[in-house]
From TrEMBL:
Domain Cytidyltransferase-like: 141-314
SUPFAM superfamilies, per database record: Nucleotidylyl transferase (SSF52374)
Low complexity bias spans: 1-15
Organism listed in the record: Rhizoctonia solani
GO cellular component: cytoplasm; nucleus
One Gene Ontology term of the molecular function aspect: nicotinamide-nucleotide adenylyltransferase activity
Region (Disordered) location: 1-68, 86-156
Polar residues: compositionally biased ranges: 22-43
Signal peptide: none
Coiled coil, from the record: none
Record Pfam families: CTP_transf_like, PPI_Ypi1
Cited Gene3D superfamilies: HUPs (3.40.50.620)
Name the UniProt record assigns to this protein: Cytidyltransferase-like domain-containing protein
Length: 341
């Protein structure tokens, strides 16, 4: 059995990145006939690591508690909530909240059941305590997060909270070589959440369809949800190929919009003419929900309207510096994502 002990290193050989040097010795009995070169030291093992202050997304065993719902096997795998100062309120916003902007006129407050924890009303650091709230959910692959994601998540509907939601499984896409891992994407999303400010959470869900995502989130958050998306995503949202049949799709959409009171906010792209947009919004499966105010179309700033994560991945570091928040660019550089693969 081997034992380890720390060895003193010369000042000139000690790197400044948190590296350590371990002297490995052998505690087993040594045969008497060993040669003269045999000693108690078998070698020096140098362990080199990055800076100890490097921020990382940590996956702890107790993170998956789904807000105290006791559903350890639920498909939500992580929720991060940006810490607040003691004087901040989760309902603070820069303007008045509008029911219409969230696609719902229902102002009912939901009672969020919490487990009996001895009277402690304060949630843990991973809790997302938004019972009875309205929240925006920016759903995307975040590969990587861009300034367009930031602009869409900053739309002026002023909900109580926002959740950047990573979909681990995608109905259309499979991971490619060079793509950021789920943990790396979550780390970039946390950086984006920090930039967006208070009342922004980060989550991940293992469901490819929005109806399933809405169902799972409502089980844990008990809130009216507004999903934010781009034009390509909303056209897929209403595509019958993702459902068993057109009739089954319509039934699920009525659950999503009517029973669950979820809604959509979609950002226009400059390349789509008004006639194409109008045709889509008044098509067979969309018209019912658009006329009911469940779908809202918004314009992003022209500077970010056509930014694409795909263009960032296929571009250069200059593309990332132009199209992504600086905090995200730092992670791309540090992890050598996209351009270095």
């Amino acid at each position: 059995m081997a034992s380890t002990s720390a060895a003193r290193r010369p000042a000139t050989s000690a790197p400044g990145d948190g590296s350590r040097t371990i002297l490995v010795t052998d505690s087993q009995p040594i045969e008497e006939n060993n040669g003269p070169n045999t000693g108690s030291s078998n070698g020096i093992l140098r362990l080199r690591g990055g800076p100890r202050s490097r921020p990382r997304v940590m996956w702890d065993a107790d993170v998956i508690d789904n807000e105290g719902c006791g559903k350890k096997k639920s498909k939500i795998c992580c929720i991060y909530h940006k810490p607040k100062r003691f004087d901040e309120s989760s309902s603070e916003s820069s303007g008045d909240e509008s029911d219409t902007s969230c696609g719902s006129n229902d102002s009912r407050k939901h009672a969020h059941k919490r487990p009996d924890n001895g009277g402690d009303a304060n949630p843990g650091p991973n809790a997302y305590e938004k019972g009875g709230s309205k929240g925006k959910r920016k759903d995307s692959s975040f590969n990587p997060p861009t300034n367009a994601h930031a602009a869409l998540a900053s739309q002026s509907t002023n909900p109580n909270s926002r959740l950047l939601l990573l979909s681990i499984s995608n109905a259309d896409k499979v991971p490619k070589q060079g793509d950021a891992s789920s943990v790396q994407r979550l780390e970039m999303m946390v950086a984006l959440a920090d930039r967006l400010g208070k009342d922004v959470g980060v989550g991940a869900v293992n469901e490819p369809t929005f109806v399933a995502k809405s169902t799972i989130l409502r089980e844990c958050l008990d809130a009216e949800l507004t999903f934010l998306m781009g034009w390509d995503t909303i056209t897929r949202f209403f595509a019958p190929r993702y459902y068993p049949s057109p009739q089954a799709m319509l039934a699920k959409l009525r659950i999503f919009f009517n029973e669950q009171q979820s809604s959509l906010i979609c950002a226009r792209r400059g390349s789509h003419p008004d006639s194409e947009e109008d045709e889509f919004l008044h098509s067979e499966y969309v018209r019912e929900f658009y006329d009911a105010g469940k779908i809202k179309i918004v314009d992003l700033d022209q500077r970010v309207r056509d930014i694409s994560s795909t263009d960032v991945r296929n571009g250069t570091i200059e593309t990332a510096e132009r199209d992504c928040p600086s905090q995200v660019v730092e992670i791309i550089k540090r992890e050598k994502l996209y351009f270095w693969n």
